[in-house]
Amino acid sequence: MPISAVSAAESPRAAVPPDTRHDKFERLVAKAQRCPPVVTAVVHPCDEVSLRGAVEAARLKLIVPLLVGPSARIREVASKSNLDIDGFEIADSAHSHDSAAKAVEQVRSGRAQVLMKGSLHTDELMGAVIAREAGLRTSRRISHCFIMDVPGHDNALVITDAAVNIAPSLADKVDIVQHAIDLAISLGCEKPKLAILCAVETVNSKMQATLDAAALCKMAERGQIKGGILDGPLAFDNAISKQAANTKGIKSEVAGDPDILLAPDLEAGNMLAKSLSYLAGADGAGIVLGARVPIILTSRADELLTRLASCAVAVLIVASRQASTAIR
What is the pLDDT of residues 102-134, one digit of tens each? Predict the structure, then answer.
């Protein structure tokens, strides 16, 4: 049975041919299954949706769940939902804020390699992650990536940042770009191509996003951003369509063939990702980067396969980091 069979039969998104829906996510999950499962602190899995995602990811040997939340409530949800959590370790907590703090501590102590959001608010989880003394901060800016399975697009398409940084500065974008490039490499892309999206494809002194795009490209040329090929500013049409780029006389390795789309701000990125989901039938796995460990950030509206794909992405990131450390 294909993994996509675990997804909901009904979806409000655009209808797409069944043989093309989920194919990139299925490949991601299959690739992650060749890696060792990662110990994942599942934060406050106190509803059926979040607990089922953890159980199914464990069944597929993607993660080893460490459930962090009120133990009686978790067992009640498992019983009512007919979910087998026998053998899963549960770290008891008093409430959602306590769950977030204790899950972060599981990471700090080295017991967990990944965090996974359950049925608590994102700001509760991220508040614990970014706490100055007890959190998981690094020197880099924290950012979010959607990994989109877009029908008709050959590979998974990364969109950043659509969930964390509202109005990123140029310095923020440097970290956001580097996170996305590192992510794409973890997923198997040797030299990721990153399109810096703006409303136009020319530098305009009155449009800050175009100035940032030009600066980012020069920084990549000078080695301040590593591992990818950048181009921008690019409007969405010539970023995605080689024909549109050719019509406008744009000669670029990136235009028409991007692996990553950098949005100018959160509003643009969020609307782009949701437009692809609801108008083009795309699915979007979510991951937060820049903390000590990957953070699987899912939505209550996500289908089960999307949750599994998010787990697969985290597994591949951990495996890539471990391989990189071993080489050093």
Answer: 999 999 999 999 999 999 999 999 999 999 889
So what's the pLDDT on residue 105?
Answer: 97
Structure confidence at residue 20 (pLDDT)? 52
Structure tokens at 291: 């903390």
Query: How far is Cα 6 from Cα 153, in angstroms, rounded to an integer?
Result: 23
C-alpha triplet 102, 107, 112: angle, nearest 5°: 105
Residues of the chain with pLDDT under 50: 1, 5, 7-12
110: left (phi over 0), alpha (psi -120 to 50) or beta: left
pLDDT reported for residue 1: 46
Instruction: Judge contact between 91 and 67, C-beta under 8 A.
Output: yes
Instruction: Look at residue 17 in the predicted model and tell me its pLDDT.
Output: 52
Q: Kindly give the interhelix angle for 170-186 and 304-327, rounded to the nearest 10 degrees.
A: 90
The tokens of 87 are what?
């053998």
pLDDT at 21: 60
- Residue ranges of alpha helices (H) inside the chain are 23-32, 48-59, 71-80, 96-108, 122-129, 170-186, 208-221, 236-240, 242-247, 266-280, 304-327
**Domains of the chain and CATH, by start:** 36-137+291-328 (3.40.50.10950), 140-288 (3.40.718.10)
* Phi-psi region at 152: left, alpha or beta (left = phi > 0; alpha = psi -120 to 50): left
The strand pairing partners of 197, in sequence order, are 234
Cα–Cα dist 84/77, whole Å? 10
DSSP 165-227: -SS--HHHHHHHHHHHHHHHHHTT-SS-EEEEE-SSSS--TT-HHHHHHHHHHHHHHTTSS-S
Amino acid at 47: D
pTM for the structure as a whole: 0.91
At 264, list the tokens: 């100018």
Provide CB contacts within 8 A for 210, sequence distance 6+.
198, 200, 202, 203, 204, 232, 233
